[in-house]
C-alpha cells in the first residue's frame, strides 16, 4: 500500500503503519481511520481496495510530507526575517521555547567542547 509515494509497512497495524508519513501521529492516524470507516486493528496487507481509496481520500485533504515541511520552513524563515525573539533563537541555534541553556540544551547546541587548561600551548613556547 502506497500513499503520497511512501510505502506503508505491510506487517504493522494500519494505525501504526500510517506513522511513517511525516505529519501523522498516533491521534491523527486514529481520526483518519475513523473518518474512512476502517477498523483500527486491521493490517495494511488486509485492507481492501475500497478501504484504501477511502483512506487516501481522507489523507489528500491534509497538509503532509513535503508541503508540511515547506510550510514549517517558511514559518521559521518568516520569524527570522522579521527578527522576532523566536527567530533570533533559531538563527543562533539555541532553544526556542524558553528552556534553560546554562546546563542541558545539548540537543540543540551540540556536543560539549572541553576548553582545557591551556598548558600544552605554554609548554611549546
UniProtKB/TrEMBL annotation:
Molecular function via GO: rRNA binding; structural constituent of ribosome; tRNA binding
Tagged with keyword RNA-binding: yes
Region ranges (Disordered): 100-125
Top-rank lineage group of the source organism: Bacteria
Compositional bias (Basic residues): 100-112
One Pfam short name: Ribosomal_S13
Keywords of the record: Ribonucleoprotein, Ribosomal protein, RNA-binding, rRNA-binding, tRNA-binding
GO cellular component: cytosol; small ribosomal subunit
GO BP field: translation
Family, as annotated: Belongs to the universal ribosomal protein uS13 family.
Protein purpose: Located at the top of the head of the 30S subunit, it contacts several helices of the 16S rRNA. In the 70S ribosome it contacts the 23S rRNA (bridge B1a) and protein L5 of the 50S subunit (bridge B1b), connecting the 2 subunits; these bridges are implicated in subunit movement. Contacts the tRNAs in the A and P-sites.
Subunit structure: Part of the 30S ribosomal subunit. Forms a loose heterodimer with protein S19. Forms two bridges to the 50S subunit in the 70S ribosome.
The protein's name: Small ribosomal subunit protein uS13
Organism of derivation: Candidatus Zambryskibacteria bacterium RIFCSPLOWO2_02_FULL_39_14
Classification of source organism: Bacteria, Candidatus Zambryskiibacteriota
Amino acid at each position: 500500500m502506497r500513499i503520497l509515494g511512501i510505502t506503508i509497512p505491510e506487517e504493522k497495524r494500519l494505525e501504526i503503519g500510517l506513522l511513517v508519513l511525516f505529519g501523522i501521529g498516533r491521534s491523527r492516524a486514529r481520526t483518519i481511520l475513523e473518518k474512512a470507516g476502517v477498523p483500527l486493528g486491521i493490517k495494511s496487507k488486509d485492507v481492501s481496495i475500497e478501504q484504501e481509496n477511502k483512506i487516501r481520500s481522507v489523507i489528500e485533504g491534509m497538509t503532509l510530507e513535503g508541503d508540511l515541511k515547506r510550510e514549517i520552513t517558511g514559518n521559521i524563515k518568516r520569524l527570522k526575517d522579521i527578527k522576532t525573539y523566536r527567530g533570533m533563537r533559531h538563527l543562533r541555534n539555541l532553544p526556542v521555547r524558553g528552556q534553560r541553556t546554562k546546563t542541558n540544551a545539548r540537543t540543540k547546541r551540540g556536543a560539549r567542547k572541553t576548553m582545557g587548561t591551556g598548558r600544552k600551548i605554554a609548554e611549546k613556547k
